[in-house]
């Protein structure tokens, strides 16, 4: 697998495909090793890199449903996945993630949801995945600090204004201590690990 991961990292670099960066990756892998998720929902496949990391480091028979909007990326991801031993464990669903989340079976509960797609949609994704999350499930969201702008007093460039606003909303939502516990790892571009609190 190391050769395949290296191939994917090189491809992502050459083609400017955003994958979880080196610093964030270390934290991501540690979390996967710790929680060993069995049923995973991934929002944003890109080239399939994080899906393969999850199957490689996660539970032995982990099953991943990965949602991807871009047809070209989905094809590229499938090509890489087909080169691995995990091709039967990862299913890519093409189309708008927000719509496809709502079509998923509500009785099938996920141990982990990984959000790494359109940053401006994070609050919406969160609301939509909560009914699908197992009681002791976790939500991981990448890029929540978005280039340092989210926690900065400095005004973001106009083109990032909405993204930064929505990511702040997302952080505020998962920081609601009546509902969640959230830890934000600043490695990489900010990885938020959220657990839902049990209600009596």
Automatic annotation (TrEMBL):
Record field: catalytic activity: 5-hydroxyuridine(34) in tRNA + S-adenosyl-L-methionine = 5-methoxyuridine(34) in tRNA + S-adenosyl-L-homocysteine + H(+)
Entry keyword set: Magnesium, Metal-binding, Methyltransferase, S-adenosyl-L-methionine, Transferase, tRNA processing
Pfam families linked: Methyltransf_3
Enzyme Commission (EC) number: 2.1.1.-
Residues bound to Mg(2+): 116, 142-143
Positions bound to S-adenosyl-L-methionine: 20, 50, 68, 96-97, 116
Protein's name according to its UniProt entry: tRNA 5-hydroxyuridine methyltransferase
Organism name: Megamonas funiformis YIT 11815
């Amino acid at each position: 697998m190391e050769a395949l991961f290296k191939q994917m990292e090189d491809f992502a670099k050459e083609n400017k495909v955003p994958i979880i960066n080196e610093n964030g990756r270390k934290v991501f892998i540690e979390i996967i090793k710790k929680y060993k998720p069995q049923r995973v929902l991934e929002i944003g496949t890109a080239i399939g890199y994080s899906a393969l990391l999850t199957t490689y480091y996660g539970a032995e028979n982990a099953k991943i449903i990965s949602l991807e909007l871009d047809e070209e990326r989905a094809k590229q991801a499938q090509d890489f996945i087909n080169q691995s031993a995990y091709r039967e464990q990862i299913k890519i669903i093409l189309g708008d993630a927000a719509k496809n989340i709502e079509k998923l079976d509500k009785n099938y509960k996920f141990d982990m949801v990984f959000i790494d797609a359109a940053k401006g949609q994070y609050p919406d994704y969160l609301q939509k995945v909560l009914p699908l999350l197992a009681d002791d499930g976790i939500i991981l969201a990448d890029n929540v600090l978005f280039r340092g702008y989210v926690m900065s007093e400095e005004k973001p460039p106009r083109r990032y204004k909405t993204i930064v606003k929505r990511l702040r909303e997302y952080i505020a939502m998962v920081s609601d201590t009546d509902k969640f516990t959230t830890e934000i790892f600043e490695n990489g571009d900010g990885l938020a690990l959220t657990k839902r609190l049990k209600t009596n």
